[in-house]
Design goal:
The chain is of the alpha+beta class. The chain has 4 helices and 11 strands; from the N terminus they run H-H-E-E-E-E-H-H-E-E-E-E-E-E-E. The radius of gyration is 21 Å and the shape is globular.
């Protein structure tokens, strides 16, 4: 789920992250500190076991990662990679030939009158190159949030920048982390304690300037037939620049021994 970035075991990271998050005090009036602590420890143990089993199951799969970078709704770059876990426990990715690895360029101006047409074409070409660089920056932003970094979350917890809300009607506990990767950003996690799974994952951030290019990022999770949980789609949207980055994981299949 990474665009030209380092590969990491997503679910292993989620395990560490959620273990940290569940350590954050959330005592209700009906509980004394000892009871709350015992409940947290029990949840952490169950969570670690569940996610460890989930990670082990995911390592037996190969899948296809599709990345699309769009400008004003038009796909400018599309790339597919075949993914699988290596012996070192990290995801290995191989570009799929003919898997959409092309870049679309905007028209570089018409033939017009002599030098005027060439000048216009050069100006448009420079704008296209600037946009390409910006779109790559937007795509790279995904690495800062997916998967989450346990050390950054631990630092946020120590600084008192994590807020926990009581479980919703759907049974989800919401945790909001402020100043996670950049000053002023927010990472919002929806955790299902009954199923021991992340159900929602949203980010409010920016590429370069908070007021000029605000970013929203969301991750949608899904389950395979055997119950293995995985990040099905990541969508990053820079509304002010009309730039979107969509990363989809699909085609999961058992690896051969």
């Amino acid at each position: 789920m990474v665009v030209n970035g380092k590969s990491r075991s997503d679910l292993c990271t989620y395990c560490a992250v959620l273990a940290i998050l569940l350590l954050i005090p959330a005592v209700t009036p009906a509980q004394n500190p000892a009871q709350a602590n015992a409940g947290r420890e029990e949840k952490i143990a169950a969570l670690k076991q569940s996610l460890a089993q989930n990670q082990a199951a995911l390592k037996t799969y190969t899948w296809t990662e599709t990345t699309e970078i769009s400008l004003k709704g038009e796909v400018k770059k599309r790339e597919q990679k075949q993914c699988r876990y290596g012996a070192d426990g990290k995801v290995q990715k191989t570009v799929i030939p003919g898997g959409g690895g092309q870049e679309k360029q905007a028209e570089k101006g018409g033939g017009g009158g002599r030098g005027g047409g060439r000048l216009k074409g050069a100006i448009v070409e420079n704008k296209v190159e600037d946009l390409k660089e910006y779109m790559e920056k937007a795509a790279a932003l995904v690495h800062q949030y997916v998967p989450p970094d346990p050390q950054k979350i631990q630092a946020a917890a120590a600084a008192g920048k994590i807020a926990m809300q009581p479980a919703s009607a759907q049974g989800l506990s919401t945790l909001t982390i402020s100043d996670y990767a950049k000053a002023g950003d927010k990472l919002i996690l929806g955790f299902d304690p009954a199923a021991k799974k992340l159900r929602s994952y949203q980010v409010q951030s920016y590429v370069e300037k908070p007021k000029d290019d605000a970013v929203t990022l969301g991750v949608t999770f899904a389950s395979l037939p055997d119950g293995t949980n995985y990040p099905q789609q990541t969508l990053l949207d820079v509304a002010a620049k009309n730039v979107t980055v969509k990363i989809t994981n699909s085609g999961y299949a058992k690896t051969t021994p």
